Amino acid sequence: MLLNQLQQAQCANPFGQLGLLPVEEGSGYVLRVWQPRATKVTAVALKGKRAPVELECVDDEGLFEATLPKLTKPFAYKLAIEAGDHQYEIVDPYQIHHQAMYHVHHMYQDVADAYDHMGAQFQTAEVCDVEIEGVRFALYAPNAQSVSVVGDFNGWDGRVHPMQKLDNGCWGLFIPGLQTGEKYKYEMKDPLGNRLPHKADPYGYHADQYPSHASILFDHSKYQWNDTDWQRNNLDDKRFRPMSIYEVHLGSWRRVIEEDGTERSLTYRELVDELIPYVKDLAYTHVELMPVSEHPFDGSWGYQPVGMFAPTSRFGTPDDFKYFVDQCHQNGIGVIIDWVPAHFPDDSHGLARFDGTHLYEYSDPRKGWHPDWNSCIYDFGRDHVRQFLVANALFWLDHFHVDGLRVDAVASMLYLDYSRKDGEWIPNVDGGNQNYEAISLLRWCNEEVYKRFPHAMTIAEESTAFPGVSRPTFSGGLGFGFKWNMGWMHDSLSYMEKDPAYRKYHHGEMTFSMIYAYDENFILPLSHDEVVHGKNSLLYKMPGDEWQQAANLRCYTAFMWGHPGKKLNFMGNEIAQGAEWNHSASLQWHLLEFPRHQGQQNLTRALNKLYQSENALFELDVSGEGFEWISHEDAEYSTMAFVRKAKSTQDQVVVVSNFTPVPRDGYRLGVNEPGTYQVILNTDKEEFWGSGYDVADTIEAEAIEWHGREQSVSINLPPLATIFLKRVG
């Protein structure tokens, strides 16, 4: 029976059969070793002068035994093995069962324990006063009939290292002598004994690329961080700070042309030298990285992740990614990563039907299959799935020091009928369409993040009017720190795409956002989704000739920077890229040889610097006290003007936009205070490739009542331009 189980890699209790075991009846011990392909096995004590013990070959398949009738207590040993012409030594893993089990049994005491106890952990085990270095493997697969660790170290032979099944659905094994960089997977039999495809480690820290998709042993304890000052100085509330985010796809931001003419992406360490100085020069406060979790398909942009605990090895090792984050922090740049708990692909090496059952996904396709992305949906109601996801969120904040998680596709999690027709979804217990399990998970996740990492933030990409997305859980909200303002993005782009002659009929599309601007803590996104799949680049969304397109984009960009809400801009937008974004090609950096593209880049830099220097533009982003319309009803001229106010000072900044190509000379604006007003930014300046229309640098307020105010100024509004004014003196 035992031999058959070992031969078929179906042994679920190897520690009951292998290793140094007390004789059931009588005294002494029996030493039993399973080594397929071995012809001779000798046990050699690791400590003391005990004589070597040559084991008898019980079966030519690889089962060896030795009876030690006089042995009174176990001893630590290694195995000297001969297999044909090969000779090697290993420390028998089946003498180290206590160390392999303890923490796995207790993994659920704290959700954060999961990523420090599950998967492959480098540890030191102690056997009979001998310390043994190795890796403890722990896997949750409660429905598997058997599990083995396979890898470079055993010829990918599932017979060699069967794991021990524990009483909590986990499997454990400590394998001595393994080194960082060795590849491994798990070989499993489903509940009926059928062999499954080799599975990557759900908690794997590092992964190989196609075709193996193997997990790679990695030790997180080696990297030495140097971002203490950043961690200490970023504990304040992000709602009251400037936040200008540069969204980046690492694989296509800039590519290197090799000698043979092929292109490759920059590595994490090359990005330190290239991307960080660029972001710093343009004065962005944060970078947001499209998903860096390991994913099998480049074309998914990372939104079909498999290795949730592994930064993609496309660009380097986990320590290389740590170095990138560390250097961002040392240069005053925060790091946000996209996090995808909404779905996962059904690749055979991944989580789908992991142990032969629907372990991670809903079993009913009406809940467990995503029609938009042809991928699986996590079963948000199962404890081990919830712990897996929350632990993963904490893991990135803990081991990689990231500053925030932007959670993708939140709306698809919240609604059971998301992108489904009648009859294609299952109502909740109350007959409604809200996924209570997902809502509960998101609340728990946000609570854990803010409790353990108060400097961090969570951001929801949520495209509906679900209430309280960025409100605390104790008041009934989901607990996110911020929410993308998808409504503003959709309405404002719809307006900008229209010919200026017709914008007056759609004036409300630009003003409507202020009706709900303080319902949530908003980020204004111009993300990657707006410049792909035939939607056109931002530049070519704009109407008019070459100059008007660039002017429209400058006017719109500055309007966005003046509008309440934090800012997010996708790479390429800042240089007015003409082509849609292509994930497999570099940005069109050669365009910076032309003035109109330099102009957009110069404007982006100027806006970011102005934004951070003027408290009025960010301190009251989430409060109506920080905003006041001057004019929102001038649809005929397609102009609008408003005031942004500071909290810590009396400063006010006036923002006025002319969304037509017609200059407005002597345009009168009501202002709140008398005095001298200075133009602190004008998108029509020649340095931005504007027309240089005659606009006075300073303007004196006059005691002429206008827009319901006792004071007003008269200003020339350039064509398709936004101007920022500030009272000085």
UniProtKB/TrEMBL annotation:
Enzyme Commission number: 2.4.1.18
GO biological process, one term: glycogen biosynthetic process
Residues in coiled coil: none
Entry-linked CDD domains: AmyAc_Glg_BE (cd11322), E_set_GBE_prok_N (cd02855)
Key words, A-Z: Carbohydrate metabolism, Glycogen biosynthesis, Glycogen metabolism, Glycosyltransferase, Transferase
Glycosyl hydrolase family 13 catalytic domain segment(s): 247-644
Enzyme class: transferase
Entry GO CC: cytosol
Active site residues of this protein: D408 (nucleophile), E461 (proton donor)
Domain of life of the organism encoding this protein: Bacteria
A GO term for molecular function: cation binding
Pathway: Glycan biosynthesis; glycogen biosynthesis
Gene3D superfamilies named among the record's database cross-references: Glycosidases, Golgi alpha-mannosidase II, Immunoglobulins
Reaction(s) catalysed by this chain's protein: Transfers a segment of a (1->4)-alpha-D-glucan chain to a primary hydroxy group in a similar glucan chain
Function noted in UniProt: Catalyzes the formation of the alpha-1,6-glucosidic linkages in glycogen by scission of a 1,4-alpha-linked oligosaccharide from growing alpha-1,4-glucan chains and the subsequent attachment of the oligosaccharide to the alpha-1,6 position.
Quaternary state and interactors: Monomer.
Family classification: Belongs to the glycosyl hydrolase 13 family. GlgB subfamily.
The protein's name: 1,4-alpha-glucan branching enzyme GlgB
Organism: Neiella litorisoli
